[in-house]
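ok so for the tutorial part 2 we go from a plain amino acid sequence to predicted structure tokens. step 1 is just haveing the sequence, like this:
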Amino acid sequence: QVQLVESGGGLVQAGGSLRLSCAASGRSFSRYGIGWFRQAPGKEREFVVYISGNGIVSNYADSVKGRFTISRDNAKNTVYLQMNSLKPDDTAVYFCAIRRGGSWSLRDFDSWGQGTQVTVSS
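step 2 — the prediction. this is what the tokens look like for a chain of 122 residues:
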């Protein structure tokens, strides 16, 4: 069974950048599409971005288009999320997960990591 571990979060000023990593254990990592979600205090977990197993297909939430870039290195079993021009509204715990179904909703993702905190100060 694939396990995911997020890293790279931290505290950054508005306008700054961070790169998150989602590292996977297990085999056949390239078979799995990976999504990033985030959850701010008092809010529901929301979809941020997705990348297909071969890295060709991606999908971004409107709120991060043009600022965030997802990529993957299947040789390293890792998906990356480059976050630029960060805003205080991006403050949240960021999670990665494997997509199992056809939608972008939580129910179609599993194998959630433990999350990494991103805090953007104004």
